[in-house]
Amino acid sequence: MVPVIKEEHFSQEQIFAILERIGYPFKHANVLPEPTLDTLRELHYRCVTSIPFELLSLRATKSRTVEIELDAIYDRVVNRRRGGWCFSLNKLAFELLRGLGFTTQYTLARMCKPRQPDDPISFRGLTHRVTIIRFAEDNNSKYVFDIGFGASSFYPLKLEEGFEVEFFGHRRRMVKAFHNLEEPHILGHSGEEYWQVQEFMGMEDKDKGGREKWTPCYAFTERQYYAIDCEINNYWSSCSPKSTFYGQFWVFQGTLDGKYNLLMNKSFKIRDSNGTVMSIDIETEDQRQNILKEFFGIEFTEAEWEHFDIKIE
């Protein structure tokens, strides 16, 4: 007999609690917002500016992994006022949006953002979860909702070639691209077309009239994946020495006025659309913990101190 897998969903009480956690501006008390594009944009903005992208579960828990069961995500984000990464935050977003009446699907994306500005572009594993929303009443238009990228876009992006969103001077756009165009021909298949999210990086060759420089962030199709796919990739991202996140201490969060607070190991920066507006080289653990508290509202518990593995000595 095939076992029945119980689906996880948020209760209405939990949905209200999440909306209060992100500071969602209710039009009417005790009335959930309607599943409209305006609501979607406001939800995205509020999530990015209130819930940090953070790797503290990898550094300060006994398991050294990110829990992605829905109750664990809710407890961490709402009760403990922490954050997470794409497999937890975008799962929370998926269930929140579904609970509000949006038509939703999740998929997995390949990270392709160069680690350094001059590095070549390379497509990596399916280690990024995103949510796709469809509006049937608007010619089946679709948007990607992603609050777990790190320095995430403040607003959702439409799945439309060349669609661009600007927020506080930051720019992101959606384009179509091919991944490994030649290799599929070995088996008689054409190249696979991906949606690719790109970030504006400024102007090149300003003395020659200027040219816009864009860098890819990640690429995805609209293929359906399953919970087990997320579990496998979440585990690999948590535990593999080849993972980008292995051994890192990162906490990122957007601000309501359009800046990004970026804590990376022993460096803290505040960045706006024109570049870095403040930079601190961290020399002591007390200094790093004070930055965590002041800019992200995070204070370590005794249990976290016990398991914390990369203290600055």
UniProtKB/TrEMBL annotation:
Transmembrane segments: none
One example GO MF annotation: acetyltransferase activity
Regions annotated as coiled coil: none
InterPro entries per the UniProt record, alphabetical: Arylamine_N-AcTrfase (IPR001447), Arylamine_NAT_domain_sf (IPR053710), Papain-like_cys_pep_sf (IPR038765)
Pfam families, alphabetized: Acetyltransf_2 (PF00797)
Protein family: Belongs to the arylamine N-acetyltransferase family.
PANTHER family: ARYLAMINE N-ACETYLTRANSFERASE 4-RELATED, N-HYDROXYARYLAMINE O-ACETYLTRANSFERASE
Name this protein carries in UniProt: Arylamine N-acetyltransferase
The species this protein was found in: Entomortierella parvispora
Lineage: Eukaryota, Fungi, Fungi incertae sedis, Mucoromycota, Mortierellomycotina
